[in-house]
Prior knowledge:
This protein has about 130 residues and is an alpha+beta fold. The chain is built from 4 helices and 5 strands, in the order ββαβααββα. Bound molecules: the ligand Nc1nc2c(c(=O)[nH]1)N=C([C@H](O)[C@H](O)COP(=O)(O)OP(=O)(O)OP(=O)(O)O)CN2 and zinc ion.
Amino acid sequence: MKRPIVITREFEFDAAHNLKNYDGDCSNLHGHRYKLEVSVLGYVGEEKYLAIDFKDLKSLGKELILDKLDHQYLNEVLDFNTSCEKLAYWIWERLEGKFIEYDCELYEIKLWETPKSYVTLNRNIMNEGL
Ligand SMILES: Nc1nc2c(c(=O)[nH]1)N=C([C@H](O)[C@H](O)COP(=O)(O)OP(=O)(O)OP(=O)(O)O)CN2
Ligand SMILES: [Zn+2]
């Protein structure tokens, strides 16, 4: 019997940015230590005892997200206004479909811009437009 389970890995990266068309101090150059949580939906079975190896989840996150964003000026490496919301969509699109070989799918991401402010994207929101 295949039993569903959600597997999560946390990442952190440092980046600088400034918001465009923003009336306030966030239009000035400043930096964040972003925290990212990536959750995938997988399965455990009689013989399949790892849904996805934590190490594989870590490698994919590093390769697809951190290698592109860590210690970067986001306005230079991304071609959109780098709000937490837009960044979350960009991360979702880079990760989606990358877990098929593990029989897993992207389930949810949370992205903290500051220790107290974060955004969430998940499969329900993406499917239902909720
Ligand atoms: N909905 C969003 N609002 C804001 C975003 C965003 O991405 N989405 N981003 C910013 C700024 O980039 C800023 O860095 C964050 O601002 P703020 O919440 O003021 O951060 P602080 O932690 O420094 O604020 P405190 O009130 O001191 O905790 C702004 N808004
Ligand atoms: Zn900011």
